[in-house]
Every structure is written in structure tokens, then in C-alpha cells.
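Entry: NADP-dependent 3-hydroxy acid dehydrogenase YdfG
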Amino acid sequence: MNAVITGASKGIGKAIAERLAAEGFNVIICARNTDALAAAKAAIREKNPAVTVIAESVDMGDKAQVMAFAQKIKDTWSTVDILVNNAGIFIPGALHDEADGLLEKLMAVNVYSAYHLTRELLPLMIAQRNGHIFNMCSTASHHAYPNGGSYSITKYALLGFSKNLRRELMPHNVRVTSVSPGPTLTASWDGFEGPPDRMMPPEDIASVVWNAFTLAKQTVVEEIQLRPMLGDI
């Protein structure tokens, strides 16, 4: 079985790629940072020598690179069983004083990348009448909060994309799940001085993704929200 995970050089994406590889999936991962991507590929292969691990350097904010990545996937595999749209950028700020162009930048990475990659890979899933798409949203997809700015706008948009996709793919037997984690111990929180156990480990998000995938084929978990026990930070 084959899985594609974007933004998988670290954090939640890497944890999901590691979990799927451990379950016997071949994985294609991508990220912008070539050094971190190479390290992630090596770590996954070392733990799971029986599976194929392909890593591609991709700027998911660049449509041409996203389309080239999609073509690489289709040239490599005739089927895709899991697509995890995880690539994203978190930049906090207030709408009234954030930098000009920030919304466009965040939309390109957080929303358009998922839109374009999904559209390119959907024909494979529809043809095989099988597949599961996971869109990594956020608790910011559900509730506005101070200093959320353009980031929160993009996460609301990604959740809307997921909901529309779910309705469209019902007759094609392709499942769609929106996963909305709260604060998770990833590089996005570098500089946070609170205790590590105040945030969720990325491996928990990976476990939730795997559990949703392993349900009966007639069962779909449409939306998942996860938060630290003590709530958002």
C-alpha cells in the first residue's frame, strides 16, 4: 500500500510517515528543507527497511512544484491509498498590522497546495474506488482567537475544502477526514518556554490518523479535534 505525506521532514508529518511505514506502507514524503528531509528519509528507512521511502524537495507554496511533485507520484505508483495534506506554515499576527502579502503566502501553502495535489491524485483513488484523504487542519479552523490573523483564515478555508471534498467523494468510496490538532510539540512552537507536557506529542496525532484509517470501509471519521488536557495555550 502507498501513502503520500506532505510537510513530512519533522513534526506531525514525520510522525505520520513513520507510523505508516511501520505499518507496512510505502511512503513518498516532501518538504522544503533538504537536510531535514534527507534525515527524515534515512530515519524512516532505517526503522523500516522493507518499505520504499521516497523523499522529494518541494516548496508547496509554488504551484508548479506541487504539480511536478504530483506527476512524480503518478509516475512512481499507479495507486495511492492514503494522502495526508500536512504541509503548512504557522505565522501568528493580527489582521490589522500583519505584513502585506502574508495572507497570499499562507493560502498558497496551507490551502492551495492541498487543493492542487488532491485534484491531481484523485483520479487514481476514484478509479480504484478506494483511498483516504487526511487534511491537517487546526483548532484554529473552528474557533477564532487573538493573534490568529491570516493563519486562522487559511485553516478555516482548509476545513471548508475538506467538507466539500467529503460530500463529493461519497459515491466514489473515497474517505475524507479533517484532523484539527491544538498545540502539538513541533518546531512551530520553538521558543515556547512552557513545560513540554503542556503540549501533545506528534505521535498521538499519527496514532489518531492510523486508527481512523483502520476502521471498517463503510465507516468514516469526518472530523477530529484534539487538544492538550489543559486546553489551548
